[in-house]
Amino acid sequence: MQTLPSPRFLPHGDAALVVEFGDRIDPAVNARVMALADALRRAPIAGVAELVPTFRSLLLHYDPLRLDFADLVAQARDAVAGLADFVPRRRRVTIPACYEGDLAPDLADVASLTGLTAEEVVRRHAGAEYAVYMIGFLPGFAYMGGLPERLHLPRLATPRLRVPARSLAIAMGMTAVYPLESPGGWRLIGAVPADLFDLAADPPALLRPGDRVRFRPVERAAFDDLRAAWAAGEGRLAIVEDAA
Length: 244
What we know:
By secondary structure, the protein is α+β, with helices and mostly antiparallel strands. The chain contains five helices and 14 strands. It has helices at 27-42, 69-81, 107-114, 118-127, 220-231, and strands spanning 8-11, 16-20, 48-53, 57-62, 91-97, 130-135, 142-145, 160-163, 167-171, 174-177, 182-184, 187-191, 212-217, 238-241. The protein is globular and about 55 Å long. The two termini are 26 Å apart.
C-alpha cells in the first residue's frame, strides 16, 4: 500500500489556507484532495467562502473577520482526520467524441510515435476512465488523469497558436478538452460536440474536479448532429452521480 506524507497546513496570503497532501501529480494524492473538498462541502466550516482543489492541495478561501487562521487549521485537521471513513461522491460523465479527419490532426503522428494503429489509439483512449484532477489554464479546462501509459507523449515541440474550441487532446499522462479557442501544445486526437464552458450556464464549467469521465466514439455525421444540438442550446451529456 502506498504511504502518503502527512498533510501540511500552509497560509496563503492573509485570507486563505492551503492543505497540501503531496509534492507530485498522483492519483492517490489527488483522491485525498477531492475527499477533503467533498467532506467540507457536506459539512462546511463557517467563514470559509470557497474551496479550490488542485492536483495535490486544497485551497480554502476564508473571511479573516469571521474565522481565525489557527481555528481554521484546527478544523481542517479534524476534517482530514475523518477522511479514513469518508466515502466521497463522484459524478460519472460520458462525453461523445469524434476521432476522424480534420478533427484529429495529430492522430496519425500519435499512432506513429506509439507504434499503434490510429484505430488502436482511439480504442485505448476511449477505453479508459479519466479522473478530473483540477480545472485550470482556461475556464473549464479539465486536467484529466488516467491516460493509458502507451499513449503518454510529450507536448508538441512547437505549440499551435490557435487550437479550435472543443478539441480533444493528450499530453504526458493526461487528456483534456480545450473549452475555448486558444494557443496550446497538446496533441489533438479528436473533438467533442459539447460546450464545456458557457458563461450563461450555472455553473459555467460543465466538468468539475473529482468527476470520472469516459469518451464515447461517434462517427462524423453523428458528431455534426450533436454539435448542432449543442449550438441550439439542446445539448445534454449522460451524467450519473454516485449515491450518498
